[in-house]
Amino acid sequence: MRAPQRHHLRATGLGDDAIARPFVGVVHTHGEVSPCAMSLAPQAAAAKLGVEVAGATAREFTTVSISDVWTLAHDHGPQYSLISREVVADSVELVLEGQRYDAVVALGACDKTVPGMLMAMTRVNIPGVYIHGGPAIQGHRDGQDLNLYRIFGDMDRAALGEISETGLEDLNRDTVVTIGTCPVQGTASTASASAEIMGFSALGSTTMPAVFPQRTDLARKAGEHAVRLLMQGGLLPRDWVTRESLENAVTMVAATRGSSNMLLHLPAIANEAGIRFELKDMAAILRRTPRITSVAPNGPHFLLDLHRAGGLPVVFRALLDGGLLHGETPTNDGRPLSAALADARAPDGRVIRGCDDPFQSDSGIRVLQGNLAPDGCIVKTADLPRLVFEGPARVFDGDREARKGIAEGRFKAGDVIIVRGEGPRGSPGMREMLEAPSPIRRRGMGQDVALVTDGRWPIGTGGLCVAHVSPEAHSGGPLALVRDGDIIRIDAERGTIDVRISDEEFARRRSGWTPPPDWVGGLAEKYARSVGPTHLGAPTHSRF
Ligand code: FES
Question: What sequence ranges are listed for the domain Dihydroxy-acid/6-phosphogluconate dehydratase C-terminal (predicted)?
């Protein structure tokens, strides 16, 4: 470090002794944008204390986050949520590289901040530890725990007149009662669980609620550990991101029936390590892994219950005992996973079960491929009586048109409803479509139609809902060439999705197809021009 940098550091209040030590960036997304991140500043302070006690100098900085709850509200224009993942990763890289920090402690707490932090850590590849902000505690009313997913059902009931708007608002008011991330197995907790099983964070840390005072101790230890990794030449993030650890993470997603968004984020994290890991690499894992937890929306319990049952180490141990994990992958403290889990409790049988006595025999998520999705797509199959659907296409271009058309009843039983142009580049930002399926659900027609999109369905219809179709329509994927009336067959049993069009007809239609213009304006324009395909995780700097 030379004189210009030293004078600047002195102006921040550091003495010569602090300047002589290694520098550890402590980055978080604390702010008042959402309750998710509001526990992070105190945890960052504890992490800084740990860094200082361990003999390094902590430098705190922040980056942005937005809440997925808000991005769900838009039916047109950029979906900034997935875009924000790239902004988080890029901004953390910017500071870590620009300021030449020696190590990092990264704290995240919402759907896209977690994968964004993991991507940045892997990209920069300096010693570091990830700390999850921790889940909120669920609300309770009339003898029942409440969760976000229930709100969608309650909205349906209100639309049908089964409950009043006041009743809806009363339930809404009681849904979550503390700060923290969604207290269910949503994207933030699934992403953090991936961090835990891959080695980015300490075992057992994900499920500890945001408001538990023990989080201060956990964060302090993480700060100390980051310095230990630096001083002792310990593991780097790319030692944690391997094909085996990625497969372990997919197994965990399957076993907890975690958020399918993680099937987008894991390839993006792999990309940062130079590993091509895509949808088709996950297909067999998703089929063979049983669901062994019962956390909402897949059961009556919450992350607090999972924590009290021993947390994720119990889940990992059960999967290891079931022969479903690579036991030699390194954990955050450097021990192989199998050794680190040796003392994990046995499943309680209520929130967590063993692989020989699962809640369900598979993950309830399948990967499909075929001439409609040559690079793959996903479908949720849990609890569906019917895994094969064949019918004529009913095509809508974009969420706005789909919302209107479906609400007006411009579809019939037997249709395969297609909503295209909502992929990462088309939206741009890969829309999570919340409202379009609602009228189908409310009419009780979930089993009568199938849905197919290159965007995402956070909440489906209760029938076959295919998402993440890759390549997307906007980039000229086959979905762009489908017309009303084309016969589409979805076979989730065999893992296929095809449209009955001959190769010659496909070629004829393609020759007359004109690519739609990319979004113009601001960040979304830059994003649309650089984003990669869904099956590779939609990264903005794909290595493949
Ligand atoms: Fe932030 Fe769910 S909206 S974690």
Answer: 351-538
What is the C-alpha to C-alpha distance for residues 460 and 406, in angstroms, rounded to an integer?
A: 14
Q: Which one of 181, 303, 432, 434 would you pick to mutate in the ligand 1 pocket, going by the greatest count of ligand atoms within 8 A of its CB?
A: 181
User: How many structural domains does the chain have?
Assistant: 3
Rounded-to-integer distance, Cα 449 and Cα 149, Å: 22
Tell me the C-alpha distance between 97 and 228, whole Å: 20
What residue numbers bound the domain in which 163 lies?
139-175
Distances in whole angstroms, Cα of residue 112 to Cα of each of 26, 88, 181, 465, 539: 18, 8, 12, 23, 13
Pocket lining: 134 vs ligand 1, CB cutoff 6 Å: no
Domain holding 242: CATH number? Answer: 3.40.50.2300
For 57-92, what is each residue's pLDDT tens digit? 999 999 999 987 777 667 778 999 999 999 999 999
Is 254 in the same domain as 299? yes
Query: 136 C-alpha to center of ligand 1: Å?
Result: 10
Cβ 447 vs Cβ 463: under 8 Å:
yes
Residue 290 and residue 358 in contact, taking contact as beta carbons nearer than 8 Å: yes
Higher-pLDDT residue of 99 and 461 is: 99
Q: Give me the torsion for CA of 442, 443, 448, 450, rounded to 10°.
A: -40
Say whether both 46 and 13 belong to one domain.
yes
For 146, which DSSP code?
A: E
Do the beta carbons of residue 367 and residue 354 sit within 8 Å?
Answer: no
Helix (DSSP H) and strand (DSSP E) numbers for the chain: 21, 14
* Other residues' Cβ atoms within 10 Å of the Cβ of residue 33: 15
Structure tokens at 355: 């692989």
Structure tokens at 423: 């992929």
| Rounded CA separation 431/416 (Å) | 19
Is the CB of residue 147 below 6 angstroms from any atom belonging to ligand 1? no
Q: Cα–Cα distance between 525 and 86 in angstroms, integer?
A: 13
Q: 236 is written with which tokens?
A: 């780097």
Instruction: Give the residue from 340, 373, 398 where a domain finishes.
Output: 340
Confidence of residue 442 (pLDDT cuts 50, 70, 90): confident
Atom of ligand 1 nearest to the CA of 181: 4
- Do 151 and 227 belong to one domain? no
Give the predicted TM-score (pTM) of the model.
Answer: 0.96
pLDDT digits (tens, 9 = 90+) for 292-345: 999 999 999 999 999 999 999 999 999 999 999 999 999 999 999 999 999 999
Using most ligand atoms within 8 A of CB, pick from 33, 34, 66, 434 the residue to mutate for ligand 1: 34
* d(CA 64, ligand 1 centre) in Å: 14
CA 35/CA 208 separation, integer angstroms? 16
Give domain status of residue 313, yes or no: yes
| Rounded Cα–Cα distance for residues 527 and 72 (Å) | 19
* CA-based torsion, 153, 158, 164, 168: positive or negative: positive
**Mean pLDDT score of the chain:** 95
Please say whether the beta carbons of 488 and 393 come within 8 A: yes
Give yes or no: residues 376 and 514 share one domain. yes
CA 455, 365, 266, 435 torsion: positive or negative?
A: positive
